[in-house]
Amino acid sequence: MPVSSEEMVSGYCGSHVLTVFTLLILFECIISLKLLELRVPAHVALGTRASLSCRWALGPADVLYSVKWYKDGREFFRHVPRDHEPRRKFPLPGVDVEQWDSSGSNLVLSAAASGTAGRYRCEVSGERPLFPTVSGHADMDVVVLPTNGPVLTGLESTYRLGDDVKVNCTSDRSRPSNKLSWYINGEPAPTTALLEPEYQICEDQLEITTLGLSFKLTKHHLKKNEIKFKCLATIASLYWRSIEESALIEREHVRDQSPIQHIDTEERAHSNLAPSLPCSITIVLMFSFSLFIRLCKITTG
User: Fold this and answer.
1) Residue 180 buriedness (CB in 10 A; 0-12 / 13-18 / 19+)
2) CA distance 71 to 115
3) What is the mean pLDDT of residues 89-111?
């Protein structure tokens, strides 16, 4: 069935309108609202204040509608510039906003508690008609720092070559657990000398970590008749404590070489004396011969 010219024009215009609309949507996607940066600390110490930051860029035709903050899917702060009350807080266990800026992009939370840990999301929306929206999320963990540093057990005051060295490093209670690292004479201990770490969970859900060190003492470990042990305990970038102790190494007595040197000295002495012996005999003989001549003269006279 032949197609009329009106239908052809209608189809042609319709396809062009669809193409233009598609291009407009793509153009909006390219130059529209963008989330530039979201800063949420991965770890925050118990009782300290965490700072949150969300940066965005509006497109040429965009107008900011709202900035909303969520934790684990629940809203706890909102900034809507056109509202009668632009900034609002919503009650949420473990999360309380103490400070904020005029744009709602920077927040400071109150002292962190165990309920502060979770996933935080920043959502930024533009005005109508398209209401472009961007968001980003990041996780935060609350750290219970140890009260004391690590301790060493099993270390002897002195060792001898060939002895088996067995030392333990134990951390104080924390959450999450401490990461322990061993150093021997300032160098990282070889993995062959490390035992499997042991974890103990306390009643308050805090953890104690123990890492053992076991190896045989060789000449490779000698350093000015001592060996140094260092254990380093860390938790993310918030905690860094170490303990270092030393032990003496009794070297085996080296056989004294002086008798050999003494023998060599005696041999040299004898060798130096040998050339002088004929000279002494010659002097004695000459003296005896001179005395004999004098006696003969006296007798003849």
Assistant:
1) buried
2) 10
3) 96
With beta carbons less than 8 A apart as the criterion, state whether 268 and 206 touch.
no
Q: 233 and 150 in contact (C-beta within 8 Å)?
A: yes
Q: Which of 253, 131, 147 has its CA nearest to residue 208?
A: 147
pTM of the model: 0.68
What CATH number is given for 151-250 in this structure? 2.60.40.10
pLDDT, tens digit (0-9, with 9 covering 90-100), for 205-220: 999 999 999 999 998 8
Q: Amino acid letter at 145?
A: L
Q: What is the CATH number of domain 28-143?
A: 2.60.40.10
Q: State residue 264's pLDDT score.
A: 37
Structure tokens belonging to residue 9: 């024009």
Domain boundaries, the chain: 28-143, 151-250
The reply to whether domains 28-143 and 151-250 share a CATH topology is yes
Closest CA to 184 of 248, 250, 245: 245
The HSE-up count of residue 209 (CA atoms within 13 Å, CB side) is: 21
For residue 144, report the phi and psi dihedrals to the nearest 5 degrees: -95, 105
Q: At residue 234, what is the residue type? A: T
